[in-house]
Amino acid sequence: MTVTHHLRVHRSDENLAREGQLAWHIAEVAADPVEVGAEVVDMIINRVIDNASVAAASLTRSPVSAARQQALDHAVSVGGDGATVFGCALDRVTSPEWAAWANGVAVRELDYHDTFLAADYSHPGDNIPPILAVAQHVGSDGAALVRGLATGYEIQIDLVRAICLHKHKIDHVAHLGPSAAAGIGTLLGLDVETIYQAVGQALHTTTATRQSRKGEISTWKAHAPAFAGKMAIEAVDRAMRGETSPSPIYEGEDGVIAWMLDGPDATYEVPLPAAGEAKRGILDSYTKEHSAEYQAQAWIDLARKLHGSNPEAADPANVESIVLHTSHHTHYVIGSGANDPQKYDPTASRETLDHSIPYIFAVALQDGGWHHVDSYAPERAGREDTVALWQKITTAEDAEWTRRYHSDDPNEKAFGGRVVITLTDGTVIEDEIAVADAHPLGARPFAREDYIRKFRILAEPVLEEDEIERFLELAQRLPELTPAEVRELSIVAKLGVLASAPAPKGLF
């Protein structure tokens, strides 16, 4: 049975015992040796495949190449065997925190892996790179890796259910540092005290502003979760050496809640698994069929439907206006409510365009689909008819879609909205969509074969066929893998692929 932790700010003279702190309860969940159920194991395998898919597709992109070069410029730390780096030969390893950095950027670069949305936002697959890197470094087997990943997903999703960060312009990776530290604690079988210290340090070092996702969005967007994973590994290392961390990190009168979130009078109800309760949080998350912000997924599916049923709406000469009636988040973060002129700029960065629902809806409506590279190409963004249509698309917050977005009922929770297209001849076209086609409640829910198909599509340009088969065979045996096989749970690029990527030089 789920236990709800009542979270509030405590004055220093209240002397809140660590056993009453959220970080301690997170550590207790992480240290609980409960078995991982078959359904959860199956989904963890899916997400390991999913992460490798999007990492493969991003191997030659500049941010990924820069992070990879940083990682490879560091030697393997002496305490283990090191960890693999996506794209590199399996014997080309680096220190685990730097492998987590490089692989985390590769996974996050295309905005194309899994998501969970509730009080805040998250990409819980960001837990996989740091936990896997540590598993490879210390020689963990597949069963231990599965347990660690189940914890990472559980803690991040539970925090996202209860604590809103974005309202206070704190980046969502502040939930990732603690979850990754907890997952590593489970992987290593650490005690509650050690995990508690690691969680506190990880949170303390990963609270940052949300400017990384505002205005002209930079390449740091992909690095932010990788940084949180790297910090989580370093926090665990520090805690294992007996060092302590700021406490109480959440509840202190100068802590995160009091000064970064809702303030001294704030309260939150954080759901966590009870002792002996299975960690099933991953089952409430969902992946992406399209390479774009999650709130854009359903809108892409609706646009491609309208492309077939109402092709006249794709021609700006026929369109007076297009209004997307949607949730508060979609309107204010990726819609016109953000008041970011960059969201309507044909020369904007890819990172900016994938956070512009007016741009995404325009392209999907004209093309009848979405491509992770072609749909963001500068020549595509600058096409005259696309720009003209794009400028006619706005968003509006709709109270009902906001309510459904925040609903606790999975059958009612929605991430889409209603479109109203007004043509120049006065015709009005209306349609709506609640969830993406690939969502568990969507028209075509993603299953194992879909994850494998996505991997093949994204990996074929950069991996040899034998390498594709090798990785898929390993990943699907995840809980049975030996430590030696866990060390091979990576992808090796075709000869010459990495050489074609930029190899920038820096300080290291």
TrEMBL record:
It catalyses: (2S,3S)-2-methylcitrate = 2-methyl-cis-aconitate + H2O. GO terms for molecular function: 2-methylcitrate dehydratase activity. Its EC number is 4.2.1.79. Keywords: Lyase. Residues 21-268 form the MmgE/PrpD N-terminal domain. It comes from the Bacteria. SUPFAM superfamilies: 2-methylcitrate dehydratase PrpD. Residues 290-478 form the MmgE/PrpD C-terminal domain. InterPro entries: MmgE/PrpD_sf, MmgE/PrpD_sf_1, MmgE/PrpD_sf_2, MmgE_PrpD, MmgE_PrpD_C, MmgE_PrpD_N. It is an enzyme of class 4 (lyase). Belongs to the PrpD family. Monomer. This is 2-methylcitrate dehydratase. It comes from Microbacterium terrae.
